Structures
1.
Amino acid sequence: MKKILVSGGAGFLGSHLCEKLLGEGNTVICLDNFFSGHERNISHLLDHPQFELIIQDVTLPFSCEVDEIYNLACPASPLIYQQHPLETFKTSILGAINMLDLAKTQQAKILQASTSEVYGDPEVHPQPETYHGNVNPIGPRACYDEGKRGAETLFFDYQRTYQLRIKVMRIFNTYGPRMNANDGRVVSNLIIQALKGQALTVVGDGKQTRSFCFVDDTVDAMWRLMNSPDTLTGPINVGNPSECTILDLASLILDLTGSKSTLTFLPATADDPLRRQPLVDMAKKELSWTPSVSLEEGLKQTISYFEKILR
Ligand code: NAD
Ligand code: UDP
């Protein structure tokens, strides 16, 4: 069995990934400074004999024996990263360098959790991996978008320079249990508002689209990519191609919660992508992966998670 490092392992995606890797009998080292994640996400893993938590900032050099590295450390919520742009950019770039240096020393395989935000506000729709994106380099989202783009650059330069075994996955909006209730992402916000009987906050006219993928599907693709042949480096899109407007999402959440909440419209925000939908032909072909959880089913599971934590 392998020794696997998950940076950002106490976050939403990272905690599900740690669970999956432990379930397969691996030893898992979770490196996190709880910047946007929380110990409660992994509290059920702390007594596991093959689980180790290291509370550390990924921007500081780190060394351990390891076979594989999943680099997830970075806030993913627009609210949090826009409040902390410098920390976000440094985490993305310095964190990538530190994890790549560790991979080089250990001859470990390394996977980068990249993002659909590398496409910015896309002029090509849906987005294939070959699209180079439309990112505003000086806007309020740039700390995240350009940080993640820079991290991709570093991954490919380390691969070309040191023949490192790299995997770059461009993750589209993922949701599910253990989303941070306070980080302002649309799925958690709208569910919590619906359950509390508060008005659902729709930014802009709500006609902007996203394509929401359930966490189990995303984590499954992450695992498949890490375990794919070394020749498959990516970048590879992972997401659910089923596209919906924010208004559609709000109305589905109202139906599923049975809430009588109304909608309230907030001003549109700068550089908010208007449309986003992944082309996942590469993931289907190369990883034999296809998302299997419908938005309705995934939302039901997410709603029951938030019902429990709001009790
Ligand atoms: P999250 O905020 O829940 O998790 C990120 C984790 O990284 C947190 O536990 C946080 O404490 C940790 N972290 C942040 N800065 C750190 C630092 N300097 N040192 C150590 N740990 C640090 O977010 P998430 O949704 O689980 O996203 C995980 C990864 O996947 C991120 O890299 C994100 O960019 C990427 N991603 C997520 C989505 C999504 O929809 N959830 C989409 C695209 C990409
Ligand atoms: N959004 C919204 N209401 C909210 C939070 C977000 O309408 O309470 C919108 C946001 O402006 C964006 C979309 O929902 O257009 C997705 O936002 P999120 O922060 O979840 O993720 P993003 O895809 O922007 O990273």
Note: The first helix runs from residue 12 to 23.
2.
Amino acid sequence: MQTKIFTEENIEEAGEIIRNGGLVAFPTETVYGLGASAFNPDAASKIYEAKGRPSDNPLIVHISDKALIGKLALEITSRAKKLIDSFMPGPFTIILKKSDNIPDAVTAGLDTVGIRLPSNETAVRFIAAAGVPIAAPSANISGKPSPTRVDHVIQDMSGKIDGIIDGGECSVGVESTIIDASGERPVLLRPGGITLEMLREIVPETMPDEHIFKSVSADERPLCPGMKYKHYAPNAEVIVVEGEKDAVQAKIRALLKENRGRITGVLTMYGSAYDEAVILSAGDSDRSYAKKLFAALREFDALGVELVFAEFCEKDGYGAAVKNRLYKSAGNNVIHV
Ligand code: AMP
Ligand code: MG
């Protein structure tokens, strides 16, 4: 299949592909999404095939106008309404009881649906051009780091989908905050650009799900099915070294010595220098770490790095989103110093 690259200029044509049952990857403020019509079960099924995504992992439905929420959801509690009013559009997905308009192929058989209105203008124009809500997970091969630049999408999806819209670099860099508001008390299922603190300012009762920072065992059924799968993992082995600057640097120096002979890399947030390792910078704030993490993991792979040490220390509200992705990319291999 020939994959066509679209820009702002021919976005209408990209929308038409969606309307006709095709697949188009598109930029959002979080990461690039791989879209299909949310009203077309066959099209939604093609997403799973292109990504190699497990069939029990539901897709988020993207809309261009809040008014559509009433058509996709059965019930909107007063707390859900407050959250919608406060955080949409933005890097925020709300889970609500689904209406019959959404096929099972989109929600993997669940009776709830995740709904998101992006703030990225290209995304909103594209969804409006499609004229239907767009079901989309991240546009990466399942298990790999999510794409934050168009070249990442081309690398994973070229030849497998109809089109890719080039919208430059994603500003947030990690996937949306997911909040389950289908019950009375909202539950944070995945941290992201909208932090727990921000959510609690609007709905103080919001609780984080226990699985956010730990792995899910095979016999558990987490609320967010995506949680139980290997995620964000580059080819390289990743080890997180977490703590204050001096201790982290000393530990990584020792680890580099122990691993002489392997091609090593360090993702630094302290601006550290190490001999004989490929160094990439995550910047010095959690916000920049979120923006750079996935691109850095892909870059280490491109450079043939076999073992990555990631410096980490949670600094602000964004830190939870970084920590969740980083721990998963490392398969929870974390050294606290
Ligand atoms: P991705 O966009 O690739 O990050 O994948 C979407 C994430 O949203 C996955 O982790 C899904 O498990 C989660 N998700 C989507 N719809 C629902 C839903 N109805 N209930 C719970 N989690 C959902
Ligand atoms: Mg994903």
Note: Residues 57-58, 60, 95, 107, 110, 112-114, 137-138, 175, 178, 189, 223-226 surround adenosine monophosphate (ligand 1) (CB under 6 Å).
3.
Amino acid sequence: MRKFCKPKALESFVRGLKARRKTIGFVPTMGFLHEGHLALVRRAQKENDAVVVSIFVNPLQFGPKEDYRRYPRDLRRDEAILRKAGVDCLFAPEVKALYPGSFQTEVRVRRLSTPLCGKSRPGHFAGVATVVLKLLHLVAPGRIYLGQKDYQQFKVIERLTADLNLPVKVRMCPIIRESDGLAMSSRNVTLEAPARREARVLYQALLKTGSLIRGGERDARRVQKALETALKAAHGARVDYAELVDAETLLPVVKLRQGSRVLAAVAVYFDKTRLIDNLLIRV
Ligand code: PAF
């Protein structure tokens, strides 16, 4: 596996691949890798000649009161994991390599960035869109792989690539879960043991929502209320949002139309750790 910290070195590696007509699959991450990331890597390996993984904790997507400093990091461990997984290239730039002092550009995907996580994390998706656009220019992949856990992020990047005519296909991979259902996330390690136990509630509440809809409930407000109540039953849970939205626009739904696709999405704080999860439901 090749490792690059400087954009210029990565660019010449990528040029070499392109000259040999190799297809590139790209998995952008913020590191502290888990099975969810590896599932993205495996899918990318299946569908491309070479796989590039980036590890970059992107300061632009964290608000001033968020966990940028606390975000777990262990580059040595991540490198070993990626080498074992047979990844071709790791791009792990320093902050100043991507954002020199003169940096001032921001990319914004307006409507999709506003609801759900956008409400409590203003500026977050602009930070994501900006860094992903930069990474796409540097890695120049044919396909980029993202996890469904960050469904809104997937929709934002899908829109970004379509709006800006980027020659890349955006692929979404299913959520990978711990044995008790908690969606895998680098942030899970920051949970204290009691909170970790209670955190199962996110998936359990989402499953209940799914059964409620399958059972014939069509009033979105009632479903949403039930979702919120299920989450609040967990000790120490502070619900940021619990919503039922249209899976394409991410706007709230009122009546659940037969055949439509909706997303039940939740964000819950346990102490300082904010967890998200979601379920796609065909009504
Ligand atoms: O999902 C993440 O880890 C990040 O938001 C991403 C896509 C790597 C951009 O920083």
Note: Residues 124-139 form the longest helix (16 residues).
4.
Amino acid sequence: MCGIVGIVGREEVAERLLDGLRRLEYRGYDSAGIATDHGGRIERRRASGKLVNLARELAADPLPGCTGIAHTRWATHGGPTTNNAHPHATDEVAVVHNGIIENFKALRDELIGRGRVFTSETDTEVVAHLVSEKVEAGFDPVGAVREVLPRLHGAFALAILFRKHPDMLIGARLGSPLVVGYGEGETYLGSDALALGPLTQRIAYLDEGDWVVCTEEGAQVYDRDNKPVERAVTISGVTGELVSKGNHRHYMLKEIYEQPIVVAQTLRSYLQRMEERVTLPIPEFDLSAIKRVTIVACGTSFYAGMVAKYWFEQFARVPVDLDVASEFRYRAPVMEPGGLMIVISQSGETADTLAALRHAKAEGQTIAAVVNVPTSSMAREADLLLPTHAGPEIGVASTKAFTCQLAVLAALAANLAHAKGLFKDGEERQIVRHLGEAPAALNAALAYDESIQEMAGAVAGARDVLYLGRGTDYPLALEGALKLKEISYIHAEGYAAGEMKHGPIALIDENVPVIVIAPSGPLFEKTVSNMQEVQARGGKVILISDYDGIQAAGEGCIATITMPKVHPLIAPLVYAVPVQLLAYHVAVAKGTDVDQPRNLAKSVTVE
Ligand code: HGA
């Protein structure tokens, strides 16, 4: 999840590189750095912590040069210090890297054995030394990189700057994304098209194993066998504007409030309101033969997948396997022919999920990707692209991407049921109607923001918090706990309500708030029984339900949150709002960094 930008051109680059990093800070904010080639020397500015620290450093000590590379880091190897900040450099070369060099230890020992001196604890520094050694031995940059790339195991996107060649940058990718941008008399490298938004819209995506030599005039791409290749240039459509917070204090709050609009926007591509049909953006894609569905994702996207498992089984009657992406391919999963794998990822770059996608593709599965970035690796590698239209999500804790993913997954489940001829009279029409009601219901849920803010104090002082739910509210309980952990640093766990009595109930005492998600409906009474088991042991319950549910079971709770009454199909979307707002207000009450919580990054591009 580190971010990379590079510019080779004729005008000063430092400010523009910094601007590129601002667009990539979602990938990590442990440290940042820039190197340029200037006056026959490689010069660097680096700073630990957020980008503002590097900006301050550059203001105090500007960095001249018309060719440069830049990096924002999410540390994997070595702490978030200035010494470990990229670019890593020798006298001859500077390198920025996204990924993990898995054989770095052996390479480092070998290099130390030859007298090379390391100044960081990172895996990346071996790349700088390996390339430098070749350059010092007389190889030109192209020859040096060609020699070194086969020695690197693991995943990398690299941008390399050469002291003696200020007119050139070399990039390479294996496992981590890298794009080439084409300008007028300038060429760029970037982790994604977003980073290059203000510089160019003309983008070529490198394939796995590609490496590229960039000069002012353009770029020459080579494939993994070192054969010159052409990679198509596409127009990214990314504008140069940075997304603003509007009138909101944090991006996260802005994004919570955007949900009615972006869910409506997303549903527009999937619901044919006139025909009362659910369709997919690729209408000719035939799902009728799908026998089994495998859903793979990480974090919040995984919980969206967990909700979808209930829907696929309920509507389309197909068996569904659900896996955390980082576990999937390491347990020799059995994938039968005719299976559909659904990968879910906001960025479409999540390394664990991407690896699972590739594994399943090699096993002959049809791949559907539910992603928010239509130019992402997953979008490009899937057979069926199912975009969410959430718009850029900047807050590290996912909110609007989650509810948009749910909207798409509900549509896909309904479409699969239709393709299999499983809908009885009027059923599809009902689904279209209920999904169509979601934006207004989300709006109604947002109206309770102030009352949720008022009760945040009851949670902010807690050391541990439990979330309980049944059915599709169980994944929401997990999501609520994840949100709280991520941004308030309070330990929280989500449980299936009925599972409490099998162990976790031992944790209950008067210091552990228990948040129960229980819309009135078929599972309400069972959930309320579990809630009463908690109350009987002195547990302090916050009940999230609708008016009827609160009337029936609100007594004895320390607080209640009233949601609009909605159909069970859209309850997971609507009930996402109070769990998001509760986590948000608790984090604000605790004074944490809501949009950039510690140790996290938005897009996780390492395994
Ligand atoms: N391994 C390198 C780069 C980390 C990275 O790509 N994170 O997403 C480091 O630790 O600096």
Note: The two ends are 10 Å apart (CA to CA).
